[in-house]
Structure formats: structure tokens, C-alpha cells
Automatic annotation (TrEMBL):
The keyword Plastid does not apply. Its EC number is 1.1.1.30. This is 3-hydroxybutyrate dehydrogenase. It comes from the Bacteria. It comes from Pontibacter fetidus.
Length: 255
């Protein structure tokens, strides 16, 4: 069975993707900063009889990303599928946006995907199979105010996705980005509070008037929908689907 490395795999969307892959029998390396990462890995391994490793690598440190990929290659044999999922957010008007938040978001949401892809690339190339799945965002395709670093980083992921698709094509390495609308995860829970402050609204007004305003389907996107698309992208049959920005955004980017 193939092996999957998922960054930010111990929370929210990444954990949902991890559960879906484990249920199909894939072995996993879950990266993430949650202190209960090792327990999550143990629990998933026992539930689905697969190998699950945990790495607390800090994605702001390229050498830790390389060590994480080496760990997966040593313990699982190889990395067949890379899911660049980890991400952070900060919401503030541009003139108040802290420089350290800009640097952190560019580093985790964008540069880490380059370092991880570069590290798994030689193995994927030599085996003639690779699947790189970037969890981008509707904000890789559209902008919103107060999210200068996040929108910039996610648009950068669009470029990275397309270049990796072109360079990967001769080696059966595909690279695609899933672009979700709003998903109710810990990242969004924190944003509801921050947005309320920035827009001077109540939290329920933020959900209705800011978040779901842009989605034609007035529901949060489900983690299951994203995980199922990731499962498909990882298959052999998806070899011609590459370089695509795939929205699951309730019609947001149709506008
Ligand atoms: P989350 O906060 O639940 O999970 C984020 C994960 O990233 C956590 O496991 C965290 O430990 C990890 N992480 C953060 N910084 C890290 C670092 N420096 N090193 C290693 N790991 C780190 O968030 P989520 O909502 O599940 O988001 C996952 C991805 O989906 C992100 O890229 C996010 O931008 C994207 N996304 C989320 C939504 C949404 O509405 N929730 C919408 C579109 C896109």
C-alpha cells in the first residue's frame, strides 16, 4: 500500500484527510504541532491496521521539513503522496498587519510546500509515481480584505502547483490544489472572533455577512468533501488531472 505524508495532519482538514486515507489502507506520516499528535497517530494506526508516524517538525524550518521527509522514507520506505495542508491565518488591515505574521504565513502556507515538494521529488521521480496535493483555498483564486499575507501565500501556491505539474508530467508526478471555501475547523473558529473585531460585528453576523456571503451554497464546506477529492487525486486513474486549481467553495469562485 502507498504512503502519504500530510502536513498539519493532526487537526481540522488535515486530520480528516488522514482518517480517509487510513480507512483506505494507506500508511501515513502525520505532521502537526498539536501536543496529542503521537496519540492521534497511535489511535489511527490501531483503528485501521496501518502504519502511522507522527512528526512535530516546524514547517518554518526547512531543515526540519527535510528531516521529516527522511523519517518517512526510512520508516515507511518512501513517500508516494504529499499533502501540503498545514496553514495559519492572521486577520488585520494592511497598515496594522504585523511583519512577523506576514513572514510566518508566507513561510508555513507557501514556502513549506516548496521545501516539502523538493524533498520528496527525487524519490517520486525515480519511481515514476507521485501525487502532490496542496490544500490551498478559495483565497488562491479570490481576495478578501484584511488577509494580505494569507491571500498572497495562497496565490503563490497556485503558481507552485502549476510549475510542479509541468515539471512532474514526464515522471507521472501530478500536482493539484484543492481550493475550499469556509470549513468549520479550529482555524476558522479563531477567525470568526478576529473578523468580528476587524469588521466590528457580532460573531453570528461575521458568519452570515462576511464568510458565507461569498458562497452561493450557504453552508460550511465539509471536511469529507475535501478528503474524498484528495483520495481521488491520489489514484492511478487521476494521472491526467494535473496543474488544476479545484474549488469546493459552494460556488464562491463562480462569481
Ligand atoms: P487547523 O488550524 O485546524 O490545522 C492547521 C494544522 O497546521 C495544525 O495541525 C497545525 O499544527 C499545523 N501547523 C500550523 N503551523 C505549523 C507549523 N509551523 N509547523 C507544522 N505544522 C503547523 O486548520 P484547517 O482549517 O484544518 O486548515 C488546513 C488547511 O486548509 C490550511 O492550509 C488552510 O489555509 C486551508 N483552508 C482552510 C479553510 C477553512 O475554512 N478552515 C478554508 C480554505 C483553506
Amino acid at each position: 500500500m502507498k504512503n502519504v505524508l500530510i502536513t498539519g495532519g493532526t487537526s481540522g482538514i488535515g486530520l480528516g484527510i488522514a482518517r480517509a486515507f487510513a480507512a483506505k489502507g494507506y500508511n501515513l506520516l502525520l505532521n502537526g504541532l498539536e501536543p496529542n499528535g503521537p496519540e492521534i497517530a497511535k489511535e489511527l494506526a490501531a483503528e485501521h491496521s496501518v502504519k502511522v508516524l507522527h512528526s512535530p517538525a516546524n514547517l518554518m524550518k526547512p531543515e526540519q521539513i527535510r528531516e521529516m521527509v527522511s523519517l518517512a522514507e526510512q520508516e515507511l520506505g518512501q513517500v508516494d503522496i504529499l499533502v501540503n495542508n498545514a496553514g495559519i491565518q492572521y486577520v488585520a488591515p494592511v497598515d496594522e498587519f504585523p511583519e512577523d505574521k506576514w513572514d510566518a504565513i508566507i513561510s508555513v502556507n507557501m514556502s513549506a510546500s516548496f521545501h516539502a515538494a523538493k524533498a520528496v521529488w527525487p524519490g517520486m521521480k525515480s519511481r515514476g509515481f507521485g501525487r502532490i496535493i496542496n490544500i490551498a483555498s478559495a483565497h488562491a483564486l479570490r481576495a478578501s480584505e484584511y488577509k494580505i499575507a494569507y491571500v498572497t501565500a495562497k496565490h503563490g501556491i497556485a503558481g507552485l502547483t502549476k510549475v510542479l505539474a509541468l515539471e512532474g508530467a514526464p515522471h507521472n508526478i501530478t500536482c493539484n490544489a484543492i481550493c475550499p471555501g469556509y470549513v468549520r475547523t479550529p482555524l476558522v473558529e479563531a477567525q470568526i472572533a478576529d473578523q468580528a473585531k476587524a469588521h466590528q460585528m457580532s460573531e453570528s453576523e461575521v458568519i452570515e455577512k462576511v464568510m458565507l456571503k461569498k458562497q452561493a451554497v450557504k453552508q460550511f464546506v465539509t471536511i469529507d468533501a475535501i478528503a474524498n477529492l484528495a483520495l481521488y487525486l491520489a489514484t492511478d486513474t487521476a494521472s491526467q488531472l494535473t496543474g488544476a486549481m479545484l474549488p469546493i467553495d459552494g460556488g464562491w469562485s463562480a462569481q
